């Protein structure tokens, strides 16, 4: 009888030891998750131009230098963090420039907009003007004529904003540049091939960004 009780007690002890080990592993995993979420490194957002179409890009020189254009973009913003969402602390904007001179600024997202973990948001941007003033100067006008001869225009998109990460006090500035080579669509053309462009993010001075 005592031998049977001893054997049962040994089984109970083994079970309790296994239970303690499992609980310990769960606690350790929980601590690691908390450390990662609240103190681990953040993965920065990824910005990409998925598609772009330029159906008009003309230089107007009278009465002042200006650009006439029709430009559409499909801009994606991806949050690669697996457990942390983001919230726009400032409006997200995209500024277009030709030969280093800005000619358009587009509102992308509102302050307060949220984006969940591992989510990608697509923004469809469309802008046009009959004559938007731009200070190209002689060199800029010469560059325009050069690119106009090929039908391919180099336009840079600069994306700026600021995000606040959920469960964190950290706020990170976004400064991304997207150099585009846009083939001017021929009249009547239904589509023009566009190579996706991954935008380059400026390195942040904040070590938590």
Automatic annotation (TrEMBL):
GO terms for biological process: defense response to other organism. Keywords: Membrane, Transmembrane, Transmembrane helix. InterPro entries: NDR1-like (IPR044839). One of its GO terms (cellular component) is plasma membrane. Coiled coil: none annotated. It is found in: Membrane. It comes from the Eukaryota. Its main location: membrane. The chain crosses the membrane at residues 15-38. PANTHER family: LATE EMBRYOGENESIS ABUNDANT PROTEIN LEA-2 SUBGROUP DOMAIN-CONTAINING PROTEIN, OS05G0367900 PROTEIN. This is Uncharacterized protein. The lineage of its organism: Eukaryota, Viridiplantae, Streptophyta, Embryophyta, Tracheophyta.
């Amino acid at each position: 009888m005592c031998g049977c009780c001893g054997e049962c007690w040994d089984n109970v002890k083994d079970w309790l030891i296994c239970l303690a080990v499992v609980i310990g592993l769960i606690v350790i995993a929980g601590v690691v998750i908390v450390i990662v979420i609240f103190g681990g490194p953040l993965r920065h957002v990824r910005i990409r131009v998925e598609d772009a179409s330029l159906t008009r890009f003309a230089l107007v020189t009278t009465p002042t230098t200006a650009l006439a254009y029709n430009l559409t973009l499909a801009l994606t913003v991806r949050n690669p963090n697996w457990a942390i969402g983001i919230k726009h602390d400032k409006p997200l904007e995209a500024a277009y420039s030709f030969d280093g001179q800005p000619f358009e600024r587009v509102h992308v997202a509102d302050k307060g907009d949220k984006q969940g973990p591992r989510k990608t948001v697509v923004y469809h941007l469309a802008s046009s003007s009959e004559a938007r003033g731009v200070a190209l100067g002689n060199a800029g006008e010469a560059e325009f004529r050069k690119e106009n001869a090929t039908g391919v225009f180099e336009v840079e998109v600069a994306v700026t904003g600021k995000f606040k990460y959920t469960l964190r006090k950290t706020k990170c500035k976004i400064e991304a540049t997207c150099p585009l080579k846009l083939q001017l669509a021929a009249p009547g053309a239904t589509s023009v091939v566009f190579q996706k462009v991954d935008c380059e993010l400026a390195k942040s001075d904040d070590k938590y960004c």
